[in-house]
Amino acid sequence: MYDNPVISGFHPDPSVCRVGDDYYLVCSSFEYFPGLPLFHSKDLVHWQQIGNVLDRPGQLPLPLPGAKASGGLYAPTIRHHDGRFWVVNTNIDGGGNFLVTAERPEGPWSDPVRIDLTGIDPDLAWEEDGTCWCAFSGPAGGINMARIDPATGKVLEGPFPTWSGTGLKFPEAPHLYRIGDWWYLLIAEGGTERGHSVSLARSRSPRGPWEGAPGNPLLSHSGTSHPIQNTGHADLVQAPDGSWWMVLLGVRPRGFTPDVHVLGRETFLTPVEWDEDGWPVLAPVPERHAAPGGAWHPVPDVPARDDFDAPALAPHWISPFARPEGSWSLTERPGRLLLTATGPTLDSPGHTFLGRRQQHHDCRVTAEIDPGTGRGGLCVRLDEAHHYEVEAADGEVAVLARIGPLRQTVARRPAPAGPLRLTVTIRTRDLVPASPGLTDGGTTGPDTLAFWFGDPAAPDNRPLAELDGRYLSTEVACGFTGRVIGMYATEGQVAFDWYEYVPVPAPSS
Ligand code: 6LW
Known about the structure:
The protein has one helix at 474-477; strands at residues 2-3, 15-19, 22-26, 32-33, 35-41, 48-54, 77-81, 84-91, 96-102, 113-114, 125-126, 132-137, 143-149, 154-161, 172-179, 182-189, 197-203, 211-212, 219-220, 229-238, 244-251, 266-274, 280-281, 288-289, 305-306, 319-320, 328-329, 337-340, 352-357, 363-370, 375-383, 386-393, 396-403, 406-414, 420-427, 448-453, 465-468, 484-491, 493-503. By secondary structure, the chain is an all-beta fold. The chain folds into 2 domains: 2-289, Tachylectin-2, Chain A; 305-503, Jelly Rolls (Sandwich). Strands 25, 27, 28, 30, 35, 36, 37 and 39 form an 8-stranded antiparallel beta sheet that branches. A 6-stranded antiparallel beta sheet has the order 29-38-31-32-33-34, with no helix packed on it. Strands 15, 16, 17, 18 and 19 form a 5-stranded antiparallel beta sheet that branches. Strand 22 and strand 23 form a beta hairpin. 51% of the residues are buried. The site of (Z)-L-Arabinonhydroximo-1,4-lactone has 15 residues, from strand 15 and strand 20.
């Protein structure tokens, strides 16, 4: 059995391909660098990040010029053809649609080759004779197709409009497949919120005419009490045993109505059956399900603790907008991550931040920091306008909160010079009331974030502050990302000895 999501935390718009017994999957990453996290699996359930497709400054006009929160890199597609891996993607803040290619999935990936097509969510599909089709969500809405030369990005024919769903809003995320005697066009429609759904059509030719599946939308959790919501943006893959599976995005909202999600849109896996007429049949996405046939290939978890004694940063570390050379070092003080401030505030792009996605609703993050004469700490962020942090500077530890136009120092306490332990614990029980004086109960948000100085387990220790987590949710902050918990420097140079992310078992309900 496997539990959904198969890749938790902010890993939206998954696209998957299989080469022999190996699966590869990429997700959107928006304004974060490196871009397009790339995962490998041998069983569709256990995924290990093996890198990022865009991990060289030269591959991205950095800092993503004029990028904004939830801008940058939208939905990618990964395919394998003619012995090469291909990823097609959209940088909505710099150049639009582009292709990168690689001999090996671990890379190196090529520099981007621009495709002269507007719109988002590009896909790649090849006919037997090598004709390459790029379906995408057109700028005027609707699904478009064009014939392209993938080596040069040149548009050879089109674009022209094609089948665009059942009439729900925002038809997008097209993927074209040749399965048996049919061409299938899979799309998302209804918008990536609670109305998200998966629809499909088929034709004898990539040019149509298309016949919509009688059961469209084939998958939607809209209007249900299912704990997984916003299901959509799917990609199909066939396992070596002939069974079919679908990866797609979903969210796990919590809290009182309207419930909100904090982990971003995550990657889920669901089985696909086919009916006697050659149409896929999709049940609601299961929370737990029998795993695809074949061997079980667990992969090592991302280590809970990073002591920063490796020569390079692990691929799961991300930075908003850019990670300028000189803003970080693993070598100046071996065994330490040194962060050097590149901007004075977390409230606008252009600051030094290195974080990892929050992947569990209940978790604890601790960093050992020596601020020296600088200023830095531990931050839980959605974007520049929605973040909570605990920081050390000038002999003091402080908790600060930024919620939209409001910025407040919530707590402060003297602190000795030298290494300090800063912790954030995130819990989904015993939540702080929506506001002081209101009893807990009907107005609770999704979780509570408590910020600590020293060891939270010390008997006499109390959090410096406890803050309502609803303001660090996607529904409040808006956009396409989810929480990232990281280390930062906003003055001088700050040394981090280690960073530890520990999932806390969800309290039994
Ligand atoms: C993506 C579009 C969508 O390009 O949201 O969920 C956009 N679907 O397909 C960003 O994720």
